[in-house]
Amino acid sequence: MKRLFCLSAPLLSLVLAGCGEESDQxxxxxxxxxxxxxxxxxxxxxxVIDDYLRNARVWLDLDGDGQYSKGPLExxxxxxxxxxxxxxxxxAMTMAGGRFDLDIxxxxxxxxxxxxxxxxxYPLYALALPGQTLQETRRGHVAVKRAFLMSASPGVxxxxxxxxxxxxxxxxxxxxxxxxxTVSPGRYADLDGLNLLKDYVLANDDKARVYAQAxxxxxxxxxxDDYNTxxxxxxxxxxxxxxxxxxxxLLGISLVQNAAEVMQRVDAAAxxxxxxxxxxxTLALPVVPLELSNPVLLTAVKVAAHSDRSGTLPARxxxxxxxxxxxxxxxxxxxxxxxxxxxxxxxxELMRLVQxxxxxxxxxxxxxxxxxxxxxxxxxxEEGGVxxxxxxxxxxxxxxxxxxxQCHKVTQGIEPESSExxxxxxxxxxxxxxSAIVETVSGRPDRMLSVxxxxxxxxxWASSRVSGYRIETGEAVERSIVFKEAGAGDVCDPAGTExxxxxxxxxxxxxxxxxxxxxxxxxxxSAYEYDYRSYTRQGESSGGLEVQRxxxxxxxxxxxxxxxxxDSVDGAFQWHLSYPALNQSDVTAETVNYIQRAxxxxxxxxxxxxDSVQESGGVAFAQxxxxxxxxxxxxxxxxxxxxxx
Length: 645
Hints:
Blueprint: H1 11-17, E1 44-48, E2 52-54, E3 57-60, E4 73-76, E5 82-85, E6 91-93, E7 99-102, E8 124-128, E9 134-137, E10 140-143, E11 148-152, E12 158-159, H2 161-176, E13 190-191, E14 194-195, H3 206-222, H4 225-232, H5 245-269, E15 296-306, E16 319-328, E17 334-341, H6 347-355, H7 377-383, E18 388-393, E19 398-403, H8 409-412, E20 427-431, E21 436-441, E22 447-452, H9 457-460, E23 468-473, E24 476-483, E25 511-519, E26 522-535, E27 545-556, H10 558-561, E28 572-578, E29 597-602, E30 622-630, H11 631-644
Parallel strand pairs: 1-12
Antiparallel strand pairs: 1-7, 2-9, 3-6, 3-8, 4-5, 8-11, 9-10, 13-14, 15-16, 15-30, 16-17, 17-18, 18-19, 19-20, 20-21, 21-22, 22-23, 23-24, 24-25, 25-26, 26-27, 27-28, 28-29, 29-30
Helix pairs in contact: 2-5, 3-5, 5-11
């Protein structure tokens, strides 16, 4: 992730002390008056600036969604009373000089209802319309080519790319810490001596002007194409709604995250510190795709595969032995998986990731579990730090595994080439048409995993990507999972009795996928057990959840069984997966099939179709807990880590 510009110290101390002195004497809040003795004027005036912008849509955002809301619009007053603005949010098109006047006559609230609304309590937004909004440049009026959205903190009446940066620095600050949310917005408006809220055209500040123009180009590059097309229509007036509140927030967070790099490229082009000669249209700015649907991402997996009481596994009192963290791009593509302690890279799971180009949230169940059973992992976990990492190079169809541990010496014959991560990778994976992946380890023959989709869940539900496979070393088949045709009794409804009635929100096996499992001399039949049905919460008539929950699946791993501490004769294991109850309010259509916990147990008999599944617990070789965050929260957490280093 990119570092915040001028944020080398913790954010709290920075915003209290500032990065530097104010660069001019204009009012820090961007207004032409100091607010003393303010009485409600009509209209509420200001400017929209990227150079001055004429014919841009501007509005006061009363409902906090970053889009214009028409009337009638109900707002909640400080008294708790509801008040309706028949005309909706005050809005206008900018005039010459980027000026706007907003009619706030409806802010005059009857005294019997409550106090008048104050426009300074709400942020301003401004939308540049492609082909309609005109930049008043030094070379004349130039039509904006692509839409971009700007904002300003409450009370700030200049709306510019720089005020947008200042506002979302404050948004990020309050998200990181409630204490930071009480800091004056003006403190977020000083960036290395640059006042982000001023009218930089009036101040004739070339540096601020070029920074703003470059940031506007960056913001425009992240505007969704369908929204840009909609706003390009001849009858568009900027009041069309397409973005969600979270989408607007993501755009602002991305601006904060990437502003430093944009500004650094401007600085590099300012020969001798002369910003007046910099043409921002010629700069090669960062290209950062952004997933505005705000997907829920898997951010951590916590593994417990150690017992202080028992010298062997399985055990009942499992303690932490590893924690995996997942790093993503701003559009949700997986960049790397880092492990405190040891992980066990799974070829079948890597294949699932390859098939979706690393966009893990497009899988209905992200990251099927795996766990290292090595006794060394717990010691590394207790030590802290990062000991293993998988890095993905999607553009070159490669991935690399790097370790500083001896956890894989017995199971895979892998030893670290260095005592530090970042050197030569111990494993390299490569792929072509996404139907096979090749694994290369120095000093041994390559292994290849080939996908077999026939009769597999992936053949029915494309988003599952759960397929059969064959792992080969040379011409020898090392391991395979082959799905069988569905048989009688493999599809059913939840079954109950008078004494044990069906509880719809609980887990039931309703779809069985029979498989043949083979590894060297070990071979047997098993099944992938699914809960597959629709579920509608009580009181809801529509919008049911499509349940496709994998409950149990077999794993054959003789190498793990050969570990001294693992009590398994034949290496036949089974993962048991559990999920939140379907009636929980935080279970959504997106997350309904997201695993909550997984336990690795001895292989057992296949559950009868229709039977309920017992809750997790008891002895296990490993227990894995999953942690998820929305893309917005993940990006903010990343900024928090960056500014605290």
